[in-house]
């Protein structure tokens, strides 16, 4: 009796915490902090997270517990890896285990530094092209009293998930070039005037020139480079690579900009965590259905050339209120596929019905096993995928039109044959056998 | 007091160091045609944007300038001397470092026959060319030079999955054409043609004038009616019945026709043999 009561309490508790979850995937966060840093260096960032309901667990990179993956199950919903200089980790923190956790749906924020570590090497597996170790990003622009490696970077005013009008942020660290992988989600680009270099005097200008001439990746320079870049796996787990750990620090959050204004680091760090931890741009398909245009219930199978409607209910996650129907997608498409897509058409939101999207079309005149394929991928948004199989059959033997004008001669032919037969049978059976009588009378005569 | 003086001295030192803003002296651009002839040669004004420079597929753009310190006017070698090519329509950007001698003199050549890999893929929009000068000791300078039209190049390689991240072209199914029916009057004409023999039949009927005196004898009437029932069933089948129905009803009607038919034949045989007796 007691254990079952305990289980009920536990499930109630978990239900309660699930309702209060800030992130759509869960609130437990593991923070790996390198030994020379303490939580006090990042109080603004971490306190912000805790205030929003995240449950932070701190661990040194070399500590054995708590483990990232326990019994093949990820122990945390999110991981913050603030150990860019650590070369040695406990046994369970390896690039492989991080990728395994990512595949299992754990979201990661990973900070990098110019030092070459296993994590530094892992970044190249995510289509990021890193500069050689030991070459941080520097910028001589604008003229300011900080070292060239500490750079104010302006935040794009229009961005899918960054707070509009975030003030510029302080950054120091490394840039990375982006591969052309569409899973990458650039969050913040380096300033156009910045470049990666390990030189520290004007006399080494020739070295900078030689970088570009050396071939290979050339010079890491300009605004095409990223300094904070997200990556969303096909299963919608998110990992954000940050070129420098100091971006999250209290020091940079409190450091006034060259203009004297407050820096945007705290807000930017909050936005990056919100996206990475599945608070923003999170969609899901609640249900999909299909039916004939004038009906409401789905059928077992459909006949070629029928007019059919496909419907999907889509919700978006909001960290304040949870899942809510969402009608804001205007570029959804649905494919009607048998090996190749036969039909691809827009799946448009239905007005007055929040979250409902509908597409109707005429089924192709090919029979076979078709699929409704909904595959919605956009940079930064979780992907929506659904596939519904539906057989399309040719008309039954009595499903064809029956009274064709072209067949009138055949109908009349068949009917007059029948009538003729009936008439002949009646005459023959009921008629007067005059011939026989005549013959008989001839005989008798 | 001591530290304060030291601090102010340090501050002055930093200010003095940064007072020397980097600048350009006698910047000049030359466009050389494929045959070596100068197509255009003019000094670049830093105050007013020069006319756009147009390069052909085999032209060479040459830039010469000297980097100077604005206060001392002496030539300096800055840490960063980058030419930035920026396509504002696509956001593509290319950064090309320029070699500067210790006296500040620099020469840059852009040969369109062998464009450097840093030149961004270009479309129809001109590239904005600017010069970025940065130094650890001098103040930085970003100088807008001119617009550059280069021959359009192949676009950047695209990831095979990239198309999934944008609305894809719609696909419509091409249906087979609807089967065509001949005009109705043609069908009606041939239907009438099929009915034409009835005219002949009724004509002959009038000549023969057959009579049916035994029609109302019970055995014959029931058989004729059961035959009519079968024909009626077939007509009904054609209009709306399914195969299962017609087999069920048809077997009943057939059994009835068999019985009544036997009766009718027996009746006829009896009549004929009776009359022959």
From TrEMBL, chain A:
Keywords: Endoplasmic reticulum, Membrane, Signal, Transmembrane, Transmembrane helix. The lineage of its organism: Eukaryota, Fungi, Dikarya, Basidiomycota, Agaricomycotina. Coiled coil: none annotated. It is found in: Endoplasmic reticulum membrane; Membrane. One of its GO terms (cellular component) is oligosaccharyltransferase complex. It comes from Lactarius akahatsu. It is a single-pass type I membrane protein. Subunit of the oligosaccharyl transferase (OST) complex that catalyzes the initial transfer of a defined glycan (Glc(3)Man(9)GlcNAc(2) in eukaryotes) from the lipid carrier dolichol-pyrophosphate to an asparagine residue within an Asn-X-Ser/Thr consensus motif in nascent polypeptide chains, the first step in protein N-glycosylation. N-glycosylation occurs cotranslationally and the complex associates with the Sec61 complex at the channel-forming translocon complex that mediates protein translocation across the endoplasmic reticulum (ER). Its main location: endoplasmic reticulum. Residues 29-276 form the OST48 N-terminal domain. Pathway: Protein modification; protein glycosylation. This is Dolichyl-diphosphooligosaccharide--protein glycosyltransferase subunit WBP1. Component of the oligosaccharyltransferase (OST) complex. Residues 1-21 form the signal peptide. It holds the Pfam family OST48_MD. The chain crosses the membrane at residues 408-430. Belongs to the DDOST 48 kDa subunit family. One of its GO terms (biological process) is protein N-linked glycosylation via asparagine. InterPro entries: DDOST_48_kDa_subunit, OST48_MD, OST48_N. Residues 290-430 form the OST48 middle domain.
TrEMBL record, chain B:
Its main location: endoplasmic reticulum. GO terms for biological process: protein N-linked glycosylation. It is a multi-pass membrane protein. One of its GO terms (cellular component) is oligosaccharyltransferase complex. Residues 1-19 form the signal peptide. Coiled coil: none annotated. The keyword rRNA-binding does not apply. PANTHER family: DOLICHYL-DIPHOSPHOOLIGOSACCHARIDE--PROTEIN GLYCOSYLTRANSFERASE SUBUNIT 2, RIBOPHORIN II. This is Ribophorin II. It comes from Lactarius akahatsu.
């Amino acid at each position: 009796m007691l254990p079952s009561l305990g289980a009920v309490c536990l499930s109630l508790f978990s239900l309660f915490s699930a309702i209060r979850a800030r992130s759509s995937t869960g609130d437990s966060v593991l923070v790996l902090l390198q030994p020379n840093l303490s939580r006090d260096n990042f109080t603004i960032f971490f306190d912000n997270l805790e205030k929003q309901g995240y449950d932070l667990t701190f661990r040194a990179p070399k500590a054995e517990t708590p483990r990232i993956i326990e019994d093949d199950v990820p122990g945390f919903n999110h991981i913050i890896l603030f150990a860019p200089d650590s070369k040695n980790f406990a046994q369970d923190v390896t690039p492989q285990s991080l990728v395994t956790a990512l595949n299992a749906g754990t979201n990661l924020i990973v900070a990098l530094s110019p030092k070459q570590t296993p994590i530094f090497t892992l970044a190249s597996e995510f289509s990021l092209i890193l500069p050689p170790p030991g070459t941080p990003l520097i910028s001589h622009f604008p003229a300011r009293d900080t070292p060239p490696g500490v750079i104010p970077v302006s935040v794009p005013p229009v961005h899918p998930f960054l707070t509009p009008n975030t003030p510029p942020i302080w950054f120091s660290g490394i840039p990375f070039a982006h591969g052309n992988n569409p899973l990458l989600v650039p969050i913040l680009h380096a300033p156009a005037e910045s470049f990666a270099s390990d030189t520290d005097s004007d006399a080494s200008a020739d070295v900078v020139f030689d970088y570009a001439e050396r071939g290979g990746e050339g010079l890491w320079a300009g605004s095409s480079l990223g300094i904070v870049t997200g990556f969303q796996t096909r299963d919608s787990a998110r990992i954000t690579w940050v070129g420098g750990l100091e971006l999250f620090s209290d020091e940079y959050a409190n450091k006034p900009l060259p203009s004297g204004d407050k820096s945007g680091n705290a807000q930017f760090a909050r936005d990056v965590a919100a996206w990475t931890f599945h608070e923003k741009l999170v969609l899901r398909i609640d249900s999909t259905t299909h039916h004939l245009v004038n009906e409401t219930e789905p059928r077992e199978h459909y006949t070629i050339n029928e007019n059919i409607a496909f419907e999907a209910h889509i919700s978006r996650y909001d960290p304040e209120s949870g899942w809510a129907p969402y009608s804001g997608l205007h570029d959804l498409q649905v494919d009607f596929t048998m090996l190749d897509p036969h039909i691809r058409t827009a799946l448009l939101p239905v007005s007055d019905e929040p979250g409902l999207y509908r597409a109707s079309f005429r089924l192709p005149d090919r029979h076979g096993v078709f699929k409704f394929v909904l595959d919605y991928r956009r940079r930064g948004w979780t992907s929506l995928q659904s596939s519904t199989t539906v057989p399309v059959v040719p008309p039954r033997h009595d499903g064809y039109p029956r009274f064709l004008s072209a067949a009138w001669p055949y109908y009349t032919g068949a009917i007059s044959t029948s009538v003729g037969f009936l008439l002949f049978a009646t005459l023959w059976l009921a008629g007067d056998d005059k011939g026989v009588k005549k013959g008989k009378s001839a005989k008798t005569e | 007091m001591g530290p304060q003086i030291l601090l102010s001295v340090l501050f002055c030192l930093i200010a003095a160091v940064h007072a020397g803003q980097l600048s350009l002296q006698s910047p000049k651009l030359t466009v050389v045609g494929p045959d070596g002839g100068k197509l255009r040669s003019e000094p670049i004004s830093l105050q007013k944007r020069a006319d756009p420079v147009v390069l052909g597929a085999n032209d060479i753009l040459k830039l010469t300038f000297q980097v100077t310190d604005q206060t001392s006017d002496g030539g300096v070698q800055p840490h960063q001397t980058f030419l930035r090519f920026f396509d504002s329509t696509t956001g593509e950007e290319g950064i090309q470092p320029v070699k500067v001698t210790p006296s500040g003199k620099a020469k840059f050549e852009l040969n369109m026959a062998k464009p450097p890999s840093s030149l961004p893929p270009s479309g129809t929009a001109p590239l904005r060319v600017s010069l970025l000068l940065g130094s650890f000791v001098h103040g930085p300078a970003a100088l807008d030079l001119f617009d550059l039209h280069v021959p359009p190049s192949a676009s950047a390689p695209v990831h095979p999955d990239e198309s999934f991240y944008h609305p894809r072209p719609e696909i419509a199914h091409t249906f087979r054409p609807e089967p065509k029916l001949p005009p109705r009057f043609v069908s009606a004409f041939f239907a009438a043609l099929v009915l034409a023999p009835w005219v002949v039949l009724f004509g002959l009927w009038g000549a023969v004038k057959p009579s049916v005196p035994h029609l109302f004898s019970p055995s014959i009437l029931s058989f004729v009616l059961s035959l009519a029932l079968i024909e009626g069933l077939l007509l009904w089948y054609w209009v709306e019945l399914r195969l299962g129905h017609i087999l069920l009803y048809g077997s009943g009607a057939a059994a009835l026709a068999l019985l009544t038919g036997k009766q009718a034949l027996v009746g006829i045989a009896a009549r004929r043999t009776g009359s022959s007796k």
